[in-house]
């Protein structure tokens, strides 16, 4: 058997990088929701949009999803902590104890895979469109390019596009994370079940390389978990930032905004 076959898995994007990127995707998704929230208020001239309950439900779904991802990354860090301990004790610990430690790591990883799949399913189930009446009306009737609220409408459309891109990026990173764990577990399983004495030194070196690589992931995972836990609490409350003084012709709902309000009252 060649050395390449039993080498520790190499990753184009390690779990620490993925964790940081996922956090930034979540931040972008939340900012797009807040931008849409403020834009709909400017368009309709009111915070009493009856579709706000649907937007609230979307935020709550995202909060649960953010916590699920945080849990996955927390489990990843537990795996990493055990891997680092393994690398430190590799030369001084009895092989049976090392074997037991690696079996424990294998169990942690195996428990993470279904969680990743569930998180992927939740991402796929998210709507591609914002649940605001103003969004639906723009999509079905269009709007006058000369309306004083044109910039607010563009903000709303851009926010929806940004949200869609952020969720799409999170889906892609979940696939990368699943592949990361698949390779980790395949290698661990091979190490635990290989009894070829002639390959022992190569297997030992590769296992040590794998365990040591987790030192580079640990800090990034710690930061990502803390950051995601924080935004998981924030996302359920829309951020209606104070708006700047409006121009005279945008001081009250006009034209398209009147249509929105009429639709909301219907």
What's the total helix number?
9
Using only C-alpha atoms, the radius of gyration works out to 25 Å
Strand tally is 0
Anisotropy-based shape? elongated
Taken in chain order, the helices and strands follow as HHHHHHHHH
Mean pLDDT: 79
Q: Please give the share of residues in helix.
A: over 70%
Structural class: mainly alpha
Instruction: Compute the separation of the termini in Å.
Output: 73 Å
* DSSP strand content: under 5%
Describe the structure.
This protein is an all-alpha fold. 75% of the residues lie in helices and 0% in strands. It is elongated, with a radius of gyration of 25 Å.
Give the tags:
266 residues; mainly alpha; 9 helices; elongated; disordered C terminus
Describe the structure in brief.
The chain has 266 residues and is mostly helical. The chain is 75% helix and 0% strand.
SSE order and pairing:
Blueprint: H1 3-6, H2 15-44, H3 52-89, H4 95-124, H5 133-141, H6 150-193, H7 200-213, H8 215-234, H9 256-265
């Amino acid at each position: 058997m060649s050395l390449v076959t039993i080498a520790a898995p190499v990753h184009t994007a390690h779990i620490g990088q993925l964790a940081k990127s996922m956090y930034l995707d979540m931040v972008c998704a939340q900012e797009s929701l807040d931008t849409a929230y403020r834009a709909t208020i400017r368009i309709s001239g009111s915070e009493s949009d009856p579709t706000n309950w649907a937007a609230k439900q979307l935020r709550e779904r995202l909060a649960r999803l953010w916590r699920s991802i945080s849990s996955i990354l927390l489990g990843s860090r537990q795996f990493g902590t055990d891997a680092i301990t393994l690398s430190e004790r590799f030369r001084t610990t009895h092989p049976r104890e090392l074997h037991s430690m690696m079996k424990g790591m294998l169990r942690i990883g195996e428990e993470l895979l279904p969680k990743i799949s569930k998180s992927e399913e939740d991402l796929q189930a998210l709507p591609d469109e914002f649940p605001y009446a103003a969004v639906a009306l723009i999509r079905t009737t269009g709007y006058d390019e000369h309306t004083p609220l044109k910039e607010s409408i563009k903000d709303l459309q851009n926010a929806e596009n940004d949200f869609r891109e952020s969720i799409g990026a999170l889906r892609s990173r979940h696939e990368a994370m699943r592949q990361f764990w698949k390779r980790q577990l395949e290698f661990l399983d091979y190490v635990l079940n290989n009894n070829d004495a002639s390959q022992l030194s190569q297997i030992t070196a590769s296992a040590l390389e794998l365990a040591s690589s987790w030192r580079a992931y640990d800090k990034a995972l710690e930061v990502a978990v803390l950051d995601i836990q924080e935004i998981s609490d924030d996302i359920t409350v829309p951020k209606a930032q104070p708006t700047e003084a409006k121009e005279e012709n945008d001081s009250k709902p006009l034209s398209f905004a009147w249509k929105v309000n009429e639709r909301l009252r219907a």
